[in-house]
Amino acid sequence: MLLIAGYPLAIGLLSWGRLPGGRPALSGSASGVLVACAVEFGIFAVVFGLAWLASRASVDDLLLRWKPGAWVIPLGVAYSVVLRMGVAVLAAIVLAVSVVFRIVTTDELQTVVVNKAPDVSAVVDVSALKNDPVYLLLTMTVVSFGLGGFREELWRAAFLAGCRRLWPSCFGTRRGEMGAVLLAAVVFGAGHAAQGPIAMVLTGLLGVGLGAIIVVHRSIWPAVIAHGMFDATSIALIPWAMDKMPKLKQVLPR
Questions:
Q1: 227, 153 in Cβ contact below 8 A?
Q2: Handedness of CA 104, 87, 19, 243 (dihedral sign)
Q3: pLDDT per residue over 168-187, tens digit each?
């Protein structure tokens, strides 16, 4: 359980070495993306393998059954849309409450949102996304559905299985599993600390939604598709967003 829980935190700590101004985690070339994916898959395989040897978790423990059949892919696509809307709505509510209760002024809030926006350059090379179609394709497929979808949802399922096995009285029920989902989301968000505080909050919220999908369907696969679609569409929007960000900074108060 310690291996599984510590994995995203360890990866997050390693990411600090690339900031500021360092190379992105996924390198700046198509071949670099493949190497980075192979390395991260390899590290995860070792951690997951050791955890599995200690627990001997079954396919059902890890929720690896393909459920609910033919609905996995359409459900995953639909969930990706719902997750994006849900995260956006929750973020908007938090921002609105902050202004209404005068926690921050509107100008201060705008400045914080822009200046503390997730540092995508810690993960991908924005120039390569714009100019190298192979790099873009690999990040939208291998990275989004492999690293982002399968690896992270398998990690989440292993985290839930560990909680159920070690503390059945707390996490053995459906409500208890949602408690474990919240814990996993906190760890998941903390693992993105190198990208900034807003990224930590957003990925934490995303983790809650993905974990809930796993619990409801008793399978990782709808969440894998949802996560992959979420990441792929986010990556596709990065070049456009990065082009707009400097223009927005120019009109905001310092």
A1: yes
A2: negative
A3: 999 999 999 999 999 999 98
